[in-house]
Amino acid sequence: MNKVVTLVVSLLLSTMYAQESGSENHPKFLDDFRATASITHNGVSLVPSFSLGDPALLFDLKFTKGKLSFEPDMRFSLEGKPWTMLFWLRYKAIEKEKFSLRVGAHPGLNFRTVNVIRNGQNEELLESRRYIGAEVVPNYKITERFSVGIYYLYGRGLDEGVKETNFLVVNASFTQIPLSKTVFMNFTPQVYYLTSDKLTGYYTSAFLTLAKRNCPFSLTAVVNKGISTQILPDDDFTWSVLLNYSFPSSGKARNLKRKI
User: N or C: which end of the chain has fewer CB within 10 A?
Assistant: First the structure.
């Protein structure tokens, strides 16, 4: 596990160094590179109704070239065990002044600890399950600080367990809301429909981020409440608080943003 963490850190440092060392005679390969590391008391999945139930460390990386980006999303328990790893390939299909459309796909791994009997002794093993996913994300900007959008994710399991997942979100996004001259807030309320094979559920959730301009640290609060669901875990209410550290962007756009 230490090798995985070392690989992540080495990837961050080497890519940032390569970007900074670019020049006119040796142009940068990437248009932009960003990274965020977060620590939380309760790891929350891409689908907010699913959580690790324990403290977690999250890494979000983004390598951008033109309209295409590669975005690894890796989540670990604080004991060093991997939780999920998604390797997103995303494309900005439409970029208008008011309307945008993003599409993406990923292979992914989900990890869990299983107990086995070996030579008469109880032993814990880390089991990984493979799956693939695809997303469609239209968004319409009403004002500079307010937009509405839809997020749709389809997931397909390749191993034992859940075979088909549908995740449909309707959201509103309020960004860069000033609380003082230097402190601002991002707020994203949403409702969503989730299917897990033949089981269904309806939920509401919200993300609130507090940040300070020119400061790499920020705080994000996540709350999730089931409205009506058949899917386990079926906790009526879950929440999480994350402390984020954003590495400086190597591109021109440096505003703090949270992808859904």
Answer: N
- Tell me the CA distances in angstroms from 205 to 12, 108, 188, 202, one per residue in order: 31, 24, 9, 10
- Rounded to an integer, what is the distance from CA 186 to the centroid of its chain? 16
**Tally of CB atoms within 10 A around 7:** 11
Of 127, 205, 126, 211, which is closest to residue 161 (Cα–Cα)? 127
Q: Which domains does the chain have, with CATH numbers?
A: 2-247 (2.40.230.20)
Q: Comparing C-alpha atoms, which of 142, 134, 130 is closest to residue 85?
A: 130
pTM of the model: 0.85
Q: Residue 27 above 70 pLDDT?
A: no
The span from the CA of 172 to the CA of 107, in Å, is: 28
| Count of beta carbons in the 10 Å neighbourhood of residue 80 | 11
Position 144 confidence tier, pLDDT thresholds 50, 70, 90: very high
Cβ contact 153:183 at 8 Å: no
Contact of 227 with 202, CB cutoff 8 Å: yes
Q: How confident is the model at residue 7 (pLDDT cuts 50, 70, 90)?
A: low
Tokens of 54: 């324990």
